[in-house]
Write a structure and sequence with these properties.
This protein is α/β, with parallel strands linked by helices. The protein has 12 helices and 8 strands. The model is unreliable at 1-16 (pLDDT under 50). Pfam families: adh_short.
């Protein structure tokens, strides 16, 4: 990331309110950047809910899984590293002996792994109320997934897109039979404001020429937001009792940063006032997933537990529909190869 790109990214927070970010001042929801996942879910009883958290073995995914379990939800940690996921499970149970936590392998960079995960989850014969699409990679050098797709787009968007589609029938059935609203939370990022100029490079998705680690990440996070909006629209048309919202968790130093340590140190130097700790980073996800105020709210974008208007690209319905069709085409192409 060049210095000018870092500054451009930083300037995007101006509309969020620099004072609110620096002080943690609560917004309309009653919460702000300083709120933690435990605070925003205090008093919530999730004992009747089953949740999947992708990337739940570390960072804000782990904190989200821990707090959901603390609120008595049955949590399935979906993770690429099974050893780390089992360690996360034991840490949650050590703190909360009554916690219900299972671990299943999921590599979002592999469509085959996504399908295998769904088969494994269905074999458990559990309901599904909450899907937290949390996992991701960040600022990777150019490389392709085993399915031949640029790795940030493949992991952050395409894997989650397929995962969500494959789990939708289970979520619809759960919502219908229990009468309990289902919720899908998709982690986007403020970085959705810094994709390639055209937003999504549909014709150049895998190109090495012109590749930018920052813009490719922004593209994948824009795709997350577009996916959330289009899925919300489709479910509303069906009259399904499932909400879909996207969130920016904030800037947190987690293992997600491992691909570009020097870049992140430079970035943090210019954005030091924006950074959160992990409990704060998991707050918006946890709020959107569990808080009673979120009942019936769908197709929105949340920052610091408060609704925020995303970029013009993110609000483009035609772009969202085009991405939906493009994603299905990529998946169909991979299944035939």
């Amino acid at each position: 990331m060049h210095l000018c790109s870092s500054l451009s990214f930083t300037l995007q927070v101006s509309e969020m309110g620099i004072f609110a970010l620096m002080t943690g001042r609560p917004g309309p929801s009653g919460f702000g950047s300083a709120s933690t996942a435990e605070q925003v879910t205090e008093g919530v009883d999730a004992s009747n809910l089953t949740a999947i958290v992708t990337g739940g073995a570390s960072g804000i995914g782990f904190e989200t899984a821990r707090v959901l379990a603390l609120r008595r939800a049955h949590v399935i940690i979906a993770a690429r590293n099974i050893e780390a996921a089992n360690e996360a499970k034991q840490a949650i149970i050590k703190e909360n002996i009554s916690a219900r936590v299972d671990v299943l392998k999921l590599d979002l960079c592999s469509l085959k792994s996504v399908r295998a995960f769904v088969d494994s989850f269905n074999a458990l014969d559990l309901p599904l109320n909450l899907l937290i699409n949390n996992a991701g990679v960040m600022f990777c050098s150019h490389q392709l997934s085993e399915d031949g797709v640029e790795v940030q787009f493949a992991t952050n968007h395409l894997g989650h897109f397929l995962l969500t589609n494959l789990l939708l029938d289970k979520m619809k059935n759960t919502a219908r039979t229990t009468g309990v609203e289902g919720r899908i939370v998709i982690l986007s990022s403020l970085a959705h404001t810094t994709p390639y100029q055209e937003g999504i490079r549909f014709d150049k998705i895998n190109d090495r020429i012109g590749y930018s680690e920052l813009k490719a990440y922004g593209q994948s996070k824009l795709a997350n937001l577009l996916h959330s909006n289009e899925l919300s629209r489709r479910l509303q048309e069906e009259g399904v009792n499932i909400t879909v919202n996207s969130v920016h968790p904030g800037l947190i130093m987690t293992p997600l940063m491992r691909h570009s340590p020097l870049l992140m140190k430079t970035f943090k130097l210019f954005t030091f006032w924006m950074w959160k700790n992990v409990p704060q980073g998991a707050a918006t996800t946890s709020y959107v997933a569990l808080h009673p105020k979120m009942k019936g709210v769908t197709g929105k974008y949340f920052v610091d537990c408060n609704e925020m208007k995303p970029s013009s690209h993110a609000g483009d319905e035609k772009l969202a529909k085009k991405l939906w069709d493009f994603s299905n085409k990529l998946i169909d192409g991979a299944s035939k190869s």
